[in-house]
Design goal:
Elements lengths: L10 H27 L6 H8 L3 H7 L1 H10 L14 H39 L1
Helix pairs in contact: 1-2
């Protein structure tokens, strides 16, 4: 039986893995810092999207930290993105939609007239 004394060179792969790991750590740290700075909610989904890493990675390496940050934010009310609509704003939206509907109906009538003229021109050629 032959045994090989050849040792594989995996140094490049190891260096690449370390470089990738450092970049990933930096992205997660920057994402968490940015979320804290902007007073945004911190959870696994948001950090994962912000840092462009998987949730599994966060659960494996940042579980304790993210849970601690979430616990600290329990008392903080998250930013409300959508304001409640008042009757006036609803009326404005309805008026804008009705205007758009009217414009589209007029365009349909115009296009039907054009189509009808084109068909009659083709019919007259026959």
């Amino acid at each position: 039986m032959l045994t090989s004394s050849h040792k594989r060179n995996t140094e490049g792969i190891t260096l690449y893995r370390e470089k990738k790991k450092k970049a990933c750590i930096e992205r997660v740290e920057n994402a968490i810092t940015e979320l804290i700075r902007n007073h945004q909610a911190i959870n696994f989904n948001i950090v994962s999207e912000s840092a462009n890493v998987s949730k599994k990675y966060l659960y494996d390496y940042y579980y304790e930290r993210i849970n601690e940050l979430r616990a600290k934010q329990e008392g903080i009310k998250p930013k409300q993105v959508k304001q409640q609509m008042t009757n006036n704003s609803k009326d404005i939206l309805l008026a804008a939609k009705n205007k758009r509907i009217k414009e589209l109906e007029e365009e349909i009538v115009r296009l039907k007239a054009i189509t009808q003229r084109k068909y009659s021109e083709e019919y007259n050629k026959i």
